[in-house]
Specification:
Strand order of the largest sheet: 1-11-18-17-16-12-13-14-19
Radius of gyration: 22 Å
Number of domains: 2
Distance between the termini: 36 Å
Shape: globular
Helix content: 25-40%
Largest sheet: 9 strands, mixed
Low-confidence stretches: 1-6
Strand content: 15-25%
Mean pLDDT: 94
Structural class: alpha+beta
CATH architecture of the largest domain: 2-Layer Sandwich
CATH class of the largest domain: Alpha Beta
Length: 451
C-alpha cells in the first residue's frame, strides 16, 4: 500500500508516522488470559533492571495480590530493581460499581507498604480529571526491562483468569529497547513528575478536591504530550509506532481515523462496547460504499462486565449492556443491505458466563492496532489512551495474526439480520422501564458520551 507512488491523505498520514524497527523474533502474541498472567509473573520474576506496571486498576483480590506480592518479592531479591506502579487515582480510592463500600485498593497498597517497611514500591495515582466519570488513566502496557507486555486488561481475578471466570482481551509481548524506553521516559516526564500525581501507597495523601486546580492544569497539559522518539524504520519493514493521546484532536485519534479508510480489502475491528463516535461510523459506511469488507466483533450483551442475570438484583448500571445492544441494532438496521450481501459481518462473542474486553483493528494483512481504546466517545474525548500501531508490509506476523483472529472468532455467532437482536420490547421489565424513562428525559445521549 505505502509503496505506491501516489498516496491519498489517509495513506500519507500512516507513511509519515515515525516507526521503530521490530524483530519478528521479538514479537509474541499471547492467546489467553491465563497465559498473560503466567507471562507477567515470569517477567516480573526474571526482571533485572526495571518494572513499570501501568493499568486502570490493580485489584485487592487473589489475582491482584499475586502480582503485587511478586513485585515485592522481585524487589526483595534485587534491591537495585526500579519498580513502580501507575493506576487511576479515582478508581483506586473507591470500590467496584454496584458493590457495597469497604476497604479500597489504595488502603491495600498502604497495608502492603506497612508490612514491607524495608521495601519501597511506589504506587502512583494519576487523576486525568477532577471526577472519574469525566476521564481516567486508560493507558496500557507494562514495561519490564526491554519488553513491553501490552494488553487492554486491568489486573484482577477475572482479567487474569485466576479462578473459574475470565475476561477475554488481547495480549502482545514486544521486546524492543527503544519502544520500552520511549514509553517509560514519557511516564517519568509527564506523569510521575506532575504536581497532580500523588502516591497511593502512603496514608498521607490529599483529597481529590484539594488538588482540583492541579488536576485541571494536568489535564490541559496532557493534551500536548506525544511520545518523543526518532524513527529508525522505513515503510517496507516490520515496525511499531507507539501512540498516546487525550482529547478528540490527539495524534492517536487522528491515526485511528486515518487507519480505517486505508483498508483496500478488509477492515476488522473489535470493541467491547458498541458505541462508536460518528466519525468512525462514517468511515465504516464509506468503506462499504467503496466495496470493501468490514468485520466487527463485539461482545454479546451477556458478555458485558456490567450485565446482571435476571435472577439477580437489578441495578441501574446493569442497563448499560442493553443500551449498547440498542446502538448495535440501530447501526445494523441502517446497513442491513451490506449485512445481507455479506460485505458487512458483525459477530457477537459469548462464552458461557465469561466476559469480553477486546479492542483493536486489523487492516488488510498490513496493519495491526493494539490498544486499550474502546473506540467509543469516552475514549475519543475523556480518557488518557495509548496504542501501538504495527506495520507488517512483509506479512511476517501473518501466522500470529490469523491464529489470534481465529481464536477470537471461535466463540462468536454471525448476525444475519438486525432483527436477530432483541428490541426494547423484549427486555426485562425493569430494564425496559428504565430505558424508556431515560429516553423521555433525554439522558441516554449523555450516558453514551461518558460510558
Amino acid at each position: 500500500m505505502l509503496s505506491k507512488f501516489k498516496r491519498n491523505k489517509h495513506q500519507q498520514h500512516l507513511a509519515q508516522l515515525p516507526k521503530l524497527s521490530q524483530s519478528v523474533a521479538d514479537f509474541t502474541t499471547l492467546y489467553s488470559p491465563a497465559h498473560f498472567r503466567q507471562t507477567l509473573l515470569e517477567k516480573i520474576f526474571s526482571a533485572t533492571r526495571r518494572i513499570c506496571i501501568v493499568a486502570l486498576y490493580l485489584e485487592n483480590d487473589d489475582g491482584g495480590r499475586s502480582i503485587l506480592s511478586a513485585l515485592y518479592e522481585a524487589k526483595r531479591r534485587r534491591p537495585e530493581l526500579d519498580v513502580r506502579i501507575l493506576v487511576d487515582w479515582h478508581r483506586a480510592q473507591r470500590g467496584r460499581i454496584g458493590v457495597a463500600s469497604g476497604a479500597t485498593n489504595a488502603d491495600w497498597y498502604c497495608e502492603m507498604a506497612d508490612q514491607n517497611p524495608d521495601i519501597v514500591i511506589p504506587v502512583y495515582g494519576v487523576p486525568v480529571n477532577t471526577r472519574e466519570a469525566l476521564g481516567v488513566l486508560h493507558l496500557k502496557g507494562s514495561v519490564i526491562d526491554d519488553a513491553l507486555l501490552y494488553s487492554g486488561a486491568s489486573l484482577n481475578d477475572v482479567y487474569l483468569h485466576q479462578h473459574d471466570k475470565y475476561r477475554y482481551d488481547r495480549y502482545q509481548l514486544i521486546t524492543n529497547p527503544q519502544l520500552a524506553d520511549t514509553m517509560v521516559n514519557w511516564i517519568d516526564k509527564n506523569l510521575i513528575q506532575a504536581e497532580a500525581v500523588h502516591r497511593l501507597d502512603q496514608h498521607e495523601r490529599p483529597k481529590s478536591p484539594e488538588i482540583k486546580n492541579e488536576t485541571r492544569q494536568f489535564r490541559q497539559d496532557l493534551r500536548g504530550f506525544d511520545y518523543d522518539f526518532s524513527g529508525d524504520a522505513n515503510n517496507e519493514q516490520l515496525a511499531v509506532t507507539p501512540l498516546v493521546g487525550l482529547g478528540k484532536r490527539s495524534l492517536l485519534n487522528k491515526t485511528i481515523y486515518h487507519l480505517m479508510p486505508c483498508a483496500e480489502q478488509k477492515l476488522t475491528l473489535c470493541t467491547p462496547y458498541f458505541n462508536m463516535p460518528a466519525i468512525l461510523v462514517r468511515n465504516i459506511i464509506w468503506l462499504l460504499q467503496q466495496g470493501r469488507e468490514v468485520e466487527i466483533i463485539v461482545g454479546d450483551k451477556t458478555a458485558n462486565d456490567f450485565y446482571v442475570p435476571q435472577d439477580q438484583p437489578f441495578k441501574i448500571i446493569s442497563a448499560l449492556p442493553y443500551l449498547y445492544e440498542i446502538n448495535l441494532r440501530r447501526f445494523l438496521s441502517r446497513l442491513q443491505y451490506y449485512v445481507s450481501s455479506g460485505q458487512l459481518t458483525v459477530r457477537l462473542w459469548k462464552d458461557r458466563e465469561n466476559s469480553y474486553h477486546l479492542k483493536g483493528m486489523w487492516v488488510d494483512d498490513e496493519w495491526i492496532l493494539i490498544t486499550g481504546n474502546n473506540l467509543n466517545p469516552r475514549a475519543w474525548r475523556l480518557d488518557l489512551e495509548n496504542a501501538v500501531l504495527i506495520h507488517d508490509p512483509l506479512q511476517q506476523l501473518a501466522d500470529q495474526r490469523e491464529k489470534e483472529l481465529a481464536l477470537i472468532r471461535k466463540n462468536t455467532s454471525v448476525i444475519q439480520h438486525f432483527r436477530d437482536l432483541e428490541s426494547i420490547a423484549d427486555y426485562p421489565i425493569k430494564v425496559r422501564k428504565l430505558i424508556r424513562r431515560l429516553r423521555r428525559i433525554r439522558i441516554d445521549k449523555l450516558i453514551s458520551r461518558i460510558l
